[in-house]
Amino acid sequence: MKKYLKAGLSGLLAVAMTAALVGCGGGSASEDTSASADSKVQKEPITLKFPTYLCGTNVGAAPFKVILENFNKQYGDEITVKVEEIPSDDAYKDKIKVLMSSGDLPDVINGKQGLFDLAVKGGFALDFTPYMDADPEWKASVTEAALKANSRDGKMYSVTETADVVGYFYNKEMFQKAGITPAKTWDEWFSNCDKLKAAGFTPLALMTGENSWTTNLILASLIGTNGEAGNTFMNTLHPKNYNTPEVIDSLTKMQKMLQDYTTSDAVGAKYNDAANNFLSEKAAIIANGSWMIGDFSNTEKAAAGFDKKVGCAAYPESGIVTAYREGWMVTSDDDAHKEAAVKFVKALTEDAAQLQNLELSSVIPLSPTVNISDEFKEKNPILAELINANSSIKYRYLEMDNIDYANVTDAFANLYPALAMNKMTAEQVVQQLNETAAKNTD
Description:
With 442 residues, the chain is an alpha+beta fold. 52% of the residues lie in helices and 12% in strands. The strands form 4 sheets. Strands 6, 7, 8, 9 and 11 form a 5-stranded mixed beta sheet that branches.
């Protein structure tokens, strides 16, 4: 016992002597050694895991590449973004669901296709409120309205960089040969489809795979322009009662479109299939947003000069989808990764990113300080048509993805084929939608 006490006292004495030497100026060598050691210690960059569908033929791949390069230039010494490319929306959704179930989520995910609600309910999502309050410039870029749309119980769970302003694109050459112009009413829409068929053209590029995107945009428009009741339905989050005259009527009309007016591969088709059918002039109309415009002049996707054939219009009855995307969510475990992930989300959504999305994929920006010049509109006439159509709209409504529960969105992939093949009626589809929605508890 005394031996250890003596050793302890000797250690204290050594410390005291060292302190005295330092006080007399004798510690310069020690200080230099310490400083030298500190200079050799460098923090390892924080690695962010980021699986993404913004790759391959996705229209957002080009702006994302630029945004990532700019982020790496600014933060490369402290943050490394480990990108995992996932080549379709469906595969992305399935991958994130698996990671949620295992509790091994990446640092940043997108809330699309119901992932937003799953992440919030699972307690995985970071609240952006303190970060937005501390950065008013960023907050202004993504707007209060967009943040509110992606908030629940006063907490901001995701940040988006754009609003979906979605009409439909049409082949002007086919329309001219069929002797038609964009329909003002739904009756005229069906008349146009008949005239396109008579002229030898397939009217619609529909799909039932993934989230039934191009098909559900038309369904949303049928419901959302069907008077006040239909419009209210399409602006209501998480409906549990689809048994309304507006929904049944719209599903009946969708049944006819799937049976009579679309491509032979529509049942089971994914987005890339539907997009290719329009780009290769196998269909006259596709419902989609402005981000597709860049594809029209991309000679790897369409014939040279195809963009000159494309027009853009609002839906019949003066309707247009106006919805905020679910946006980017931080799902990191620890504080250091959360801080780094927030910086990355800011890079994905701030003014500079919105400008890249506008210029490279024709996505209409949210920020009031990203100006769309007259010169840009002249160089981008299809986008200008959409902007003009958007300026005088009677009905605005959300996407099916926005309002539906995640399991309801998934259900359409099975219900649309049954509807198309007369295995179910619109009323039976509605019953299935109600039963699926009822499985959710808010």
